């Protein structure tokens, strides 16, 4: 299995917390979008790069005992803790592994495509694995909103700018979200529907971004766009319940499309 360019350490215990905090931010959007698609009893679903498994649990509940949910990831420790008879966990590398032909009514992936060297090849593979009429939901960030905050704060803007620079230096497209509608159409999907969502918050209310910044502290400093003191100042804001700084955070672009029947 070829090593993939996932930039976080999947084996590290802190990764589980990071994934759960991130899921807490985005699950309500993802669940709503899956509900709009109409996921229901008896559906066969695949979640790629399922991480902590919050969406897998939701899907398993929705499809019921007559449905089936396959959950894949490079690291499956947390997925294996899910106790549901309709869930099957597979250690699987999406860029190199195969998925089969016309198997799933729904395929879902969030914040996974960005880590793949050839996004279009992955999407083509996912579309092949859908049954005719089946749906794909893909969600990825557009980081343009990361430095946005109120009141204006140069330190936060520097951290946001350094984060985008770090991702791009790592070879990731920090603005993949905006490209998704085009990628899904090129993959042959129809009824492509995109929505872009952000959740601006006071920073003490959003531990997910704190954890993220702490984890990439050194690479952020290495960009030369932010100093250790500025990072410490931002972390202190996260830890101060009275901090009034509202940050926009990344925008999630949620795009669904259907394989022609
Ligand atoms: C940012 S996390 C998102 C987790 C989950 N989808 C969510 O949104 O809560 C990315 C996940 O994709 C997995 N991943 C990254 N590259 C992968 C690959 N090439 N094949 C399968 N899974 C991969 C990682 O192990 C990680 O669990």
Automatic annotation (TrEMBL):
Methyltransferase type domain span: 46-136
Pfam family, one: Methyltransf_12
Transmembrane segments: none
GO-annotated molecular function: methyltransferase activity
Entries under Gene3D superfamilies matching the protein: Vaccinia Virus protein VP39
Keywords: Methyltransferase, Transferase
Keyword RNA-binding: no
GO BP annotation list: methylation
Top-rank taxon: Bacteria
Identification of the protein by name: Methyltransferase domain-containing protein
Organism: Saccharopolyspora endophytica
Classification lineage: Bacteria, Bacillati, Actinomycetota, Actinomycetes, Pseudonocardiales
């Amino acid at each position: 299995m070829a090593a993939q360019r996932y930039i976080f350490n999947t084996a590290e215990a802190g990764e589980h917390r990071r994934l759960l905090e991130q899921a807490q931010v985005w699950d309500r959007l993802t669940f709503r979008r899956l509900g709009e698609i109409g996921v229901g009893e008896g559906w066969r679903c695949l979640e790629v790069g399922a991480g902590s498994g919050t969406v897998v649990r939701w899907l398993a509940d929705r499809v019921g005992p007559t449905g089936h949910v396959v959950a894949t990831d490079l690291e499956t420790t947390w997925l294996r803790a899910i106790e549901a008879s309709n869930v099957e966990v597979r250690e699987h590398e999406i860029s190199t592994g195969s998925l089969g032909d016309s198997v799933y009514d729904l395929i879902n992936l969030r914040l996974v495509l960005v880590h793949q060297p050839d996004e279009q090849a992955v999407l083509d593979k996912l579309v092949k694995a859908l049954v005719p009429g089946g749906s794909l939901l893909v969600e990825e960030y557009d980081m343009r909103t990361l430095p946005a905050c109120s009141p204006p704060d140069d330190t936060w803007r520097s951290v946001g700018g350094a984060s985008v620079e770090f991702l791009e230096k790592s070879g990731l497209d920090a603005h993949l979200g905006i490209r998704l509608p085009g990628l899904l159409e090129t993959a042959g999907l129809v009824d492509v529907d995109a929505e872009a969502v952000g959740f601006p918050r006071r920073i003490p209310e959003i531990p997910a971004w704190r954890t993220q910044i702490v984890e990439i502290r050194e690479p952020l400093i290495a960009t030369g766009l932010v100093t250790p003191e500025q990072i410490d100042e931002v972390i202190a804001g996260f830890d101060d319940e009275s901090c009034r700084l509202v940050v926009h955070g990344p925008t999630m672009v949620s795009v669904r499309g259907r394989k022609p029947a």
